[in-house]
Amino acid sequence: MAENTNIVVISAGLGVPSSSRLLADQLSAATERLARGAGFAPSVTTIELRDLAVDIANNFVTGYAAPNLAEAIAVVERADAIIAVTPVFSSSYSGLFKSFIDVLEPRSLEGKLVLLAATGGSARHSLMLDFAMRPLFSYLRTRILPTTVFAAPTDWGQGAAGDRTLGGGLTARIERAATELVLELAREQGAAADDRPAATLPKVATRPEDKSFEELLADLTGADAV
């Protein structure tokens, strides 16, 4: 019987379309696909913070959470795992992202699995994940996954119709982070690898730099390399 698991995606992108939301969607899609392959019944909820910006600001002034904000807070509190994605502003997470974290009850995130991700204008901004986001979620006593995902403009390619598509390096990082999340969910919910068919749980390559992109994806998804 498939195990229900709640995955909440927090996207702090401001534009429409937003590269942060695009990255969030790719992370959630990979996680959902791998979770279903591992025997879970994942329920994915995406919270778009730009739609809650006014309610978040009012909450600081009045101490009252409007219905939409209250529901978003409740969804986060019920989460089994969180995928948190923010753009980089002034070498840190965005003010909107931090404001939403601040309206949460601090202990509500304790012990939750968290996958950290960010977007920025330069690959140099990827350091923010380790020097700003990781300390924030460590302070909140969450269980942060080893792999974080950063997407710079150079990580996005151009499709035939001009649409943005994923480049190989970013795809591999997304798959690896999603795999780690699913494996941790399996351990947390008592679904150890020896309790399931070996082919259902994704595997993480020990040295991805020694493998081709196709081989890495095969390791991560359990599929045969083409």
From TrEMBL:
Q: Where is the NADPH-dependent FMN reductase-like domain?
A: 6-156
Please name the source species: Sinomonas puerhi
Sorted UniProt keywords: Flavoprotein, FMN, Oxidoreductase
Q: Which SUPFAM superfamilies match?
A: Flavoproteins
Q: Which domain of life is it from?
A: Bacteria
Instruction: Fetch the NCBIfam families from UniProt.
Output: LLM_duo_CE1759
As recorded in UniProt, its EC number(s) are 1.5.1.-
Which molecular-function annotations from GO does this UniProt entry contain?
oxidoreductase activity
Report if keyword Flavoprotein is assigned: yes
One Pfam family per UniProt: FMN_red
Protein's name in the database: FMN reductase
